[in-house]
Amino acid sequence: MAFAVREVARQFRRPENLAFLPAITLAAYWLGGEHLLLLAALGLPLLFLAFGAFRFSLIDSIGAGRAVERDTLVVRLSAILREAQTEGRSTACMVLKLDDMGDLVERYGHAAHAEILNRCIERLQSALREGDVVARLEHDSFGIGLSPVRQADLEAVLQLAARLQSSLANPISLDAARLYVTASIGFCLSSRVPAPGGSAILEAAEIAADDALKNGPGAIRAYSAEMQRMRISRSEMRGEIESALDQGQIIPFFQPQVSTDTGEISGFEALARWKHPKRGLVPPADFLPLMERAGLSERLSETILFQSLTALTAWDAAEQHVPHVAVNFSREQLRNPRLTDQLRWELDRFGLTPDRICVEILETVVAETDNDVIVHNIAALSKMGCGIDLDDFGTGHASIANIRRFAVRRIKIDRSFVTQVDTDQAQQRMVAAILSMAERLGLESLAEGVETAGEHTMLAQLGCGYIQGFGLARPMPFEETVAWMQSYRARLTDHPRIGRHAV
Question: Which structural domain range is residue 68 located in?
Answer without folding.
Answer: 54-223
